[in-house]
Prior knowledge:
The structure is a homodimer of 199-residue chains.
Chain A lengths: L5 H10 L7 H13 L2 H17 L1 E2 L6 E2 L5 H4 L4 E8 L2 H10 L4 E5 L17 H10 L4 E4 L5 H13 L6 E4 L15 H9 L5
Parallel strand pairs in A: 3-4, 3-5, 5-6
Antiparallel strand pairs in A: 1-2
Amino acid sequence: MSGYALPIQRLIKELSRFPGIGEKTATRLATFLIRASVDDAKRLAESILDVKERIRFCRVCFNLTESDICDICRDPSRDRGTLCIVEEPDALVAIEECGTFRGVYHVLHGALAPLDGIGPEHLRLQEMMDRINRDGVTEIILAMNPTVQGDATALLITKMVAGLHVRVTRIAQGIPVGGDLRYTDKMTLSKSLEFRRGM
Amino acid sequence: MSGYALPIQRLIKELSRFPGIGEKTATRLATFLIRASVDDAKRLAESILDVKERIRFCRVCFNLTESDICDICRDPSRDRGTLCIVEEPDALVAIEECGTFRGVYHVLHGALAPLDGIGPEHLRLQEMMDRINRDGVTEIILAMNPTVQGDATALLITKMVAGLHVRVTRIAQGIPVGGDLRYTDKMTLSKSLEFRRGM
């Protein structure tokens, strides 16, 4: 990398801060930017600054939004009684793209990971409890990832809301659609057996 | 992606222009930027603009540089009689990092690829010929990639300089250091046999 002119070295360094982008990939990306038109590069730089300037958390659900309250929370047709709890905004987007969920969301911005120093106080749990108490929530759907951290978070929330009259469910784990039992890992297969449903 | 706020969608679109970066990876990078500090994001945006503003081609060898003539071409200790021809600036950097080559370079900015519409007129070949004639070059080392395009380019240059009293060599192809014959592809193995050297 030291063979490149200074501004290129700097760009490579900045690009390699991205997760999963090493020096080689960063160099490839930098090379692409050097070849790109000035307009293209400007558009990218501006869109980076734009996101930092305009994107904030929804005051209600902590989704990413341009406004004080996000589109979903403002939509009068959404069912405020059904609250879907997700770890991250990406999960919210993935569920929205299914187009079948008509409730509202709450984004925790993380999952319990004591080994990484992430405890309950780092998640938007208090805000979640406030909403459940305030908005007449009747069901909360735990849409954490099926990981150790997601499982721990789901368990914690289940305990937190135990005293309230709220139905608590968790999204199903099992064989993915189009999957093949031969190539499914043992954990997933066990879960799909454990959570079998009547036909 | 349509579930994200507009500035995020725009950033994802701009990031997915990078080669090898699809929408999923672009979304991951955008998410990282959203979480990053404003300062980090600004530094990245600035380094992108900076590269576009400050980097140009060396007037002599067409390497990327901040000045009119690059550091290598200005270095009086480099041997101007030995000219290493490369396809791209990255190749130049790779060779420089070996630290053993003391000649100078010429960057073609591409390789012959008639199917992609890249002919001799798209490469810095005329400038190469001018240098060979002007600078008393005694050897040109063809450091094209060992690909169909690189081979075609090497062949073309060999023909172009045939009348001049210049030694033409090409960097060796063969088993990479630390490689294993069992796992080496047939083409490489054939080349390593064909180009065997006396001990």
